[in-house]
Amino acid sequence: MTDEGSRDRQDRQEKTGVLPWLDARLPVVSAFRREYVEYRTPRNLNGLWNFGAILTVVLLVMLATGIFLAIHYTPTAAGAFASIEAIERQVPSGWLLRSIHVTGASMFLAALYIHLFRGLYYGSYKAPREMLWLTGLVLLAMVMFTAFAGYVLPWGQMSYWGADVAGKAVDAIPGIGPWLEHFLQGGDAPGDVSLHRFFILHMVLAFAVLGVVGVHVAALHVTGSNNPLGIEPKGPRDTVPFHPYYTSKDALGLILFALLFAVVVFFLPNVVFEAENFRPANPLHTPADIEPEWYFLPFYGILQSVPSKFGGLLASVGAILVLFLVPWLDRSPIRSARFRPLYRVGMGVLVVCFILLGFVGRHHAQGGWMIAGRIAVVYYFAHFLVLLPLSARWERGVVLPESIAGGRGV
Amino acid sequence: MILRCVSVLAFAAPLADLSPAVAQAGPHDRAPHQAWSFEGPLGRFDLSAVQRGYAVYAQVCSACHGMKAMTYGDLTRMGLTMEQVGRIAATQQVPGGVDAQGDPVTRAATPADHFRDPFVNPQAAAAANNGVAPPDQSRLALVYPGGPDRIYAVLTGYRQPPAGYRPSHAGAVYNPYASDREIAMPPPLRDGQVVYTDGTPATTAQEARDVTTFLAWVAQPHLEARHRLGAQVVLYLLFLAVLAFLLKRRIWSDVH
């Protein structure tokens, strides 16, 4: 009798299942359903909205490959280069993990820049999404530090001399510069101590990025996504549930991105691997041409276009800091550049200037590149500090569509 | 739409511009292009040429050039068995710690050991070679400006110097393909210098070609696996992309 009775109770429990049991105590299941299944999303998001999902997946890939690389890596000036060679040659599939990690850094920054310029173009930084914008910019800065620290770790010629140039840039800060350089490097030149610090910085920042991504996504789910029209959804007709609509669209975007990723990893590795960095670091021999990775080139271009060393440093750091002010610099109530003809042209010029500055950085701002670089720097700052505050004045009589469903034109 | 086009172009352009820049240390003649089996996106190594190239390295180059990053076990990937590699390793003596009296001893190498360095340190290497230490060859085919074409050109390019040539330092010899048309390495190869076990005539050109192939293989040991895996991954992703596209279109059909 008692046996039968207990089995009955068990059966009743099995009917209710493990997930409802869990959900009653820790509502992860209903939260997931609310935020990733039923979550209402504007129906008109274009392909540029895929990059959020892409960035999340690339970050996870970077953390996974990075942990395996860290297991085999030796953070000492004497052992770092040899440990990378061992990963490439003796560790099974080490070459593949490292190639994915190195390519991933470039792909991550590329996707991040697209994500950033999309936010600028469609006014995704405007109320009520300021926190989303600010957390995103914090992520950009963190990812840049992480990428730089990671580039130093193989301790090849470019790693060493890149760290040296960065140290010299810090040294140019008046007053605290020399002290700060010494503090960061742990000596007068990059060495054992700096390598150890960069390794820890790289690992800590990578996981901190994951945390801030959590905050960034939480902020997104408070306000919901912006969309190409820049008007808020007014009713159920303007939105679709996240699943299956955007899960299927993100899946397609991810696969296409993975295809590009795979082509670089397997067929074009020298796009991301600098040959000079296969030479071990040699503090006595300066390479003929020190240049940062492509994703720092626009900022390197700004640094070199400005005549004074400290001024250049201020300008290149300011180029990122000014982005933090954008939600308050832009006085226009209209979000999407689609309805802002002047701003739209301005955005095009901004993208061109940003790329131009990359080439200026690559050519060390010599000759004609210097002039082009200075014009681009002036426009870059004028865009944010002059065009954005004033543009609202020329945007009279703009008629926005009634609703997303009514005024779609993707 | 405009932005999309601009952004695609924008991010593609700097990548295209970032192909490895050929930094030239000093003026030299342009190395003629050679046809190599490992070129191109589907390139692969001719393993018999790699093995012959190893013979050249072992009998000639290794007298002065190290190859620190390689272990003897890595040679299995050029088609040797573990026993053959073990026999090769056993012919080399490497530092083996200290004996009971505390004196350093040597032992026969094993497949797990790295290639033996010909000199104990860079200073000894430079002192034995007119002041110029012979570069390590682990990644030489990648880091040497001009790559395999130029390595081959240098190895086969020794000739009578022009009338006005004066060596800039003791031991320097004329070579039109080296930086400043001068190199510290005396001509390393000559006809019949190496004994090939497969009966290939050991001409200077053949030796140079084989050892260049070996150096390219050492510099990119996973090139062939990379290309093979890449083709599989790309085909798989293409197929998956078609499926994902069809799925997405079907799901969205009631929205558009």
From TrEMBL, chain A:
Q: Which GO terms describe its cellular component?
A: respiratory chain complex III
Quote the subunit structure annotation.
The main subunits of complex b-c1 are: cytochrome b, cytochrome c1 and the Rieske protein.
The record, for InterPro entries, names: Cyt_b/b6_C (IPR005798), Cyt_b/b6_C_sf (IPR036150), Cyt_b/b6_N (IPR005797), Cytb/b6-like_sf (IPR027387), Cytochrome_b (IPR030689), Cytochrome_b_C_euk/bac (IPR048260), Cytochrome_b_N_euk/bac (IPR048259), Di-haem_cyt_TM (IPR016174)
Which residue ranges does the record assign to the Cytochrome b/b6 N-terminal region profile domain?
A: 18-229
Transmembrane region(s): 48-71, 100-120, 132-153, 199-220, 251-273, 310-329, 341-361, 367-388
Q: To which protein family does this belong?
A: Belongs to the cytochrome b family.
* Needed cofactors: heme b; heme
Taken from the record, one Pfam family name reads Cytochrome_B
SUPFAM superfamilies, per this entry? Answer: a domain/subunit of cytochrome bc1 complex (Ubiquinol-cytochrome c reductase), Transmembrane di-heme cytochromes
Quote the subcellular location field of this record.
Answer: Membrane
The residues that hold a ubiquinone are H221
This chain's function reads: Component of the ubiquinol-cytochrome c reductase complex (complex III or cytochrome b-c1 complex), which is a respiratory chain that generates an electrochemical potential coupled to ATP synthesis.
Q: Name one GO molecular function term.
A: quinol-cytochrome-c reductase activity
| Record-linked PANTHER family | CYTOCHROME B
Q: Which GO terms describe its biological process?
A: respiratory electron transport chain
Q: Per the annotation, how and in what number is the cofactor bound?
A: Binds 2 heme groups non-covalently.
Provenance organism: Gluconacetobacter liquefaciens
What is its membrane topology? Answer: Multi-pass membrane protein
Residues of the Cytochrome b/b6 C-terminal region profile domain: 232-402
**What is this protein identified as?**
Cytochrome b
Which terms are listed as keywords in the entry? Electron transport, Heme, Iron, Membrane, Metal-binding, Respiratory chain, Transmembrane, Transmembrane helix, Transport
Coiled-coil intervals, chain numbering: none
Determine the domain of life of the protein's source.
Bacteria
Q: Where does heme b b566 bind?
A: H115, H216
Query: Where does the chain bind heme b b562?
Result: H101, H202
TrEMBL record, chain B:
Q: Which residues form the signal peptide?
A: 1-25
Q: Which residues form the Cytochrome c domain?
A: 48-219
Key word Signal present: yes
Q: Where are the transmembrane segments?
A: 229-247
Q: Which PROSITE patterns match?
A: CYTC
Q: Which SUPFAM superfamilies does the record associate with it?
A: Cytochrome c
Cellular component per GO?
A: membrane
Q: Name one Pfam family in it.
A: Cytochrom_C1
Q: Which UniProt keywords apply?
A: Heme, Iron, Membrane, Metal-binding, Signal, Transmembrane, Transmembrane helix
GO terms, molecular function: electron transfer activity; heme binding; metal ion binding
Cofactor or coenzyme needed? heme c
Q: Which domain of life is it from?
A: Bacteria
Detail which positions bind heme c.
C61, C64, H65, M185
According to its UniProt record, where is this protein located?
Membrane
Task: Report the cofactor remark.
Answer: Binds 1 heme c group covalently per subunit.
Q: What is this protein called?
A: Cytochrome c1
Naturally occurring in which organism (per UniProt): Gluconacetobacter liquefaciens
